[in-house]
Amino acid sequence: MPQARPRAYLIFTGSGPILALSSYPKLTDKRLVEKLRYKGIDKFIAYQVDLDAVEKRYSSSLEKVLVDLQETQDIRVLDFNGHQIMANFSLDELGDPIKFGA
Fold first, then answer.
1. Domain that holds residue 76
2. Which of 7, 38, 47, 90 could covalently link to 94 via disulfide, CB atoms 3.0 to 4.6 Å apart?
3. 49-62 as b/e, with b when 16 or more CB fall inside 10 Å?
4. What total number of domains does the chain contain?
5. Which residues of the chain, if any, have pLDDT below 70?
6. DSSP character for 41?
7. Rounded to whole angstroms, how far apart are CA atoms 97 and 44?
8. pTM (2 decimals)?
């Protein structure tokens, strides 16, 4: 059965922003949160980013990540360079924040 199209998120963590793709149904999915905790991310503020907008800015690396996510339900970091991420996306493109952690 084909999986749903992955979602892209701009995630602000304690060490800076990351741009990630996830095949989980939502960013606060318990399995996904456990993976983030394993990587030291206990709290975050995130915004879903339009996947088409991500494709325009990261077309070469996006293809590889999308193929990888078709095989398994997971999360993949597409970019961890905060300066580059913030230069690539306008804050006006972001929707409502997803807050996680106390």
1. 7-100
2. 47
3. beeeebeebbeeeb
4. 1
5. 1-3, 102
6. -
7. 10
8. 0.89
